Amino acid sequence: MKLKDVMRKVVVSEPGISVKKAAEIMSSKNISSLIIIEKEKMIGIVTEKDITKSFNKSGNKVSSIMSKNVKSTDIDTSVDNAATIMAEHNIRILPITEKGKLVGVIDAKDLIEHSDVLNENFFLD
């Protein structure tokens, strides 16, 4: 199964918004991350973990807490290969691109639901 078959819509924001505003967006949309875009280029990602760690800095800009050098993969990547990428880089959210343009996102919960390898072997000893 390919990522294009299971990806979710991505929510993006600009680096100048406050940490508090990022938390509000994530809460209102029931999502665990925001991809940060500048001039149509992905420059970072902010996750629930980032928000939690910087709770007392809610007036700061999201650019001060975002993870940079975001790993991403192509829309035609298989779900199982995406799981490998995420495991190798110890990440839980993976942006998906098509011809270099951000088109979606997948997270660890999506992988568990859609991965043939995880579904077949998840509970085996």
Keywords:
125 residues; three-stranded mixed β-sheet; alpha/beta; CBS-domain; 33% helix
Describe this structure in words.
It contains 5 helices and 6 strands, in the order E-H-E-E-H-E-H-E-E-H-H. The longest helix has 11 residues. It has one domain: CBS-domain (Roll), CATH 3.10.580. It is globular and about 40 Å long. Helix content is 33%, strand content 24%. With 125 residues, the protein is an alpha/beta fold. The strands form 2 sheets. It has a 3-stranded mixed β-sheet.
Tell me the CATH architecture. Roll
Gyration radius, in Å: 15 Å
**H/E element string?**
EHEEHEHEEHH
Approximate shape = globular
Parts with pLDDT < 50 across at least 5 consecutive residues: 121-125
Strand % is 15-25%
> Briefly, what CATH class?
Alpha Beta
Secondary-structure-based class equals alpha/beta
Number of domains: 1
Largest sheet: 3 strands, mixed
Q: CATH superfamily, called what? A: CBS-domain
* Mean pLDDT figure: 87
Number of strands: 6
Please list the strands of the largest sheet in the order they lie side by side: 1-2-3
Q: Could you say what the CATH topology is called? A: CBS-domain
Helix content: 25-40%
In whole angstroms, the N-to-C terminal distance is 25 Å
SS element count, helices: 5
